[in-house]
Structure prediction request, 320 residues.
Amino acid sequence: MTRPVVAPDTSRLQEACRRAGLRMTHQRLELFRELVGSPGHPSAEELHQRLRERIPTLSLDTVYRTLATFEALGLVRRISSPDHVARYDANPSPHHHLVCVRCRSIEDFSWPAVDELELPPRAAGWGLVQGVRAEVWGVCSACRQRANRPVRLPPENRGR
Amino acid sequence: MTRPVVAPDTSRLQEACRRAGLRMTHQRLELFRELVGSPGHPSAEELHQRLRERIPTLSLDTVYRTLATFEALGLVRRISSPDHVARYDANPSPHHHLVCVRCRSIEDFSWPAVDELELPPRAAGWGLVQGVRAEVWGVCSACRQRANRPVRLPPENRGR
DNA sequence: TTAAATGCAAATGATTTGCTCTTGG
DNA sequence: CCAAGAGCAAATCATTTGCATTTAA
Prediction:
């Protein structure tokens, strides 16, 4: 890999839409820009909030539909957080996740050693492999300091 | 030998409940047995179905509450499928996942090379790491053969 | 006994869908 | 023009919660 050089480069979207015979709409363009232009792993809801400033009429279901389209085009990957809200990852370079089970944050990190590893035979023969990601879970530093309760014992957890 | 050799070894549950001061109920016991005794990564719904044969009065919400309790006790890990239903992994040994984005199956596989790897500094300093899992996604052989449609293009996907 | 746990039913909240109107090509 | 896409509202469906009843300790 060379260098990241990321300006919200819309050519990937243009290209993907053309190949698939899909129209290039204002909504798709802005959504794509928002996805690749900002870090983190936003949910559909968050993207909707942010984009309303630019496209006041944008509806939440269009965000959902567009994200599904992007996913089918391979432009984003829908990832699942410890929370039950879907989050979207538009970072095309191989990277891995640090997942905090307390605050549900997801941080990217790179781990070249994993990227370079060869899949074991069992996995290599499984089917068509599209990607590999390591998920490291635990409690982030911020949460460790903030709340020092040892374990979240009984039910009544998941304080939405 | 006179050792009973409990197939689904419930001692981990007993131990965990005692430490946490939780009661040992019929429901918890059976749910735990079902979890560790059968392979795969069942959803709450599936577990509920299976257990109704043994405990006809078992309610779905008890399954949810109990699974949340088990998770807090560290007995299972709630994993997220490409689908938006939560699945539960009670396999305590380190293992990794093969996720089919088409049929949403999740298969375990072992990958010692990853287990033996050291975390990069960024991850090591992130917080309290509880586990590491590699997620390999793609299309399983069965799905590749079955449906040979090239890509799932427009929306209207997610055929529940 | 008695706080914890279950079951039931109703609530919640994310995601999806039917249908009509709008718009890109 | 005219089918693909967007918007609106209503529907779904997994998951959660309030409350009365049961039960493990």
